[in-house]
Amino acid sequence: MINNKRWLLTDTKNGIWTDSIELGAKALGVKGAKISIVKKTLRGGLCDGVDVIEVNNGALSFTILPTRGMGIWKASYGGMRIGWDSPVNGPVHPKFVNLPDRGGLGWLAGFDEMMVRCGLESNGAPCSDVVPGNTDAPARIELGLHGKIANIPAHYVEVSVVHGNPPRLQICGVVDEAMLFCPQFRLSTEISTGIGSGSIRIVDTIVNLKSVPSEMELLYHCNFGPPVLEEGARLLIPSFETAPRDAVATGGIETWHVYGAPVRNYSEQCFYHMPLADARGNSLALLENASRSKGVAVRFNTKQLPYFTQWKNTGAESDGYVTGLEPATNYPNPKSFERARDRVVRLGSGHMYRAEIAIEAFDTAVAMKKAEREIANIAKGVVCKVFKQPQPSYSRA
């Protein structure tokens, strides 16, 4: 039996913390000159104190942010960038993010990741909500944009090599979103990649640590800009219904799947999709460039993440030219709206919720055509119903 190699980087319970480490192919026990895992701590500016873990599998490289809820900052595959240019000069340490700022929009002050989780108590638009208080009497609270989990540092982090064919580089982290008298969740994540692959797999388990049931929302905000996003780029997703979120998105419903060039004063548009899946629940959304020669897919399972939001924000490049592909347990509406439509997960005490996504890059036309066929096979025989106006079952607009 082959034992997997393991390095413990952070364990606050036992007083363990590693400021920096460099593991090359030899130390990891794998073949490949470029293969490495490097951990370091950034200094200066808004990045001061942010831990980063840089992973290179020989073809794909990406950066994990333990300080920011184990999000993924940026990636590169075969020289092709996967991510976007945010107006935020990050990665930003959570100590510089004031979540209640601007009426609950403070989350945006730290937003520049390729993949960031939204949740866990809530995600979506800022809103007031009524929840059971400490004595079970109703209590009114304010919920900010996209929740708290992205601005909470991991208290446990380890890296390992999982033997197989091919071997996988794996980074595990544990993040607690918990307050006295409030929801108490634990996120345990495994982020891994096969040697030489173009894919990052993320497997998350959320556990309710509280002694009573709690509500949970989870959304994976996967964000992509140039070179994949450009004028003429398009989104392919197998779905049976698509609806605009609001009146602004209504103006773009005829071309929801096509992206334009950067423009000044662009107002974001969101489209809500009900995705189709294969017999096992597997589905994917594919963003492809204008020539269909390169792209990136977000893979997910509709039994875990049944709802999908498309965020179009094709503003000026200096303002953040980007699209978000977002599988989730719910749509990013105010929590009370989602609760009324039975789209809020209720976890019993000690119960867990498992969700898995993968982000896969393609840099050839052949690979793109294969992904397109996969989507076509899932959608075979189904004509998507595209609503021209917002629907009360999807959004309150």
State the low-pLDDT regions, or none. Answer: none
Strands, count: 26
CATH architectural designation: Distorted Sandwich
Mean pLDDT: 96
Query: What is the SS-derived class?
Result: mainly beta
Alpha carbon gyration radius: 20 Å
Predict the CATH topology: Beta-galactosidase, Chain A, domain 5
Tell me the major beta sheet. 10 strands, antiparallel
Number of helices: 6
Helix content: under 10%
Identify the CATH class: Mainly Beta
Per the principal axes of the C-alpha atoms, what is the gross shape?
globular
Percentage beta strand: 35-45%
Strand order of the largest sheet: 2-1-12-13-14-15-25-21-20-17
First and last CA, distance: 58 Å
What count of structural domains?
1
Question: Care to describe what's here?
Answer:
By secondary structure, the chain is mainly β. Helix content is 9%, strand content 43%. The chain is built from six helices and 26 strands. It is globular and about 55 Å long. The protein starts with a strand and ends in an 11-residue tail after the last strand.
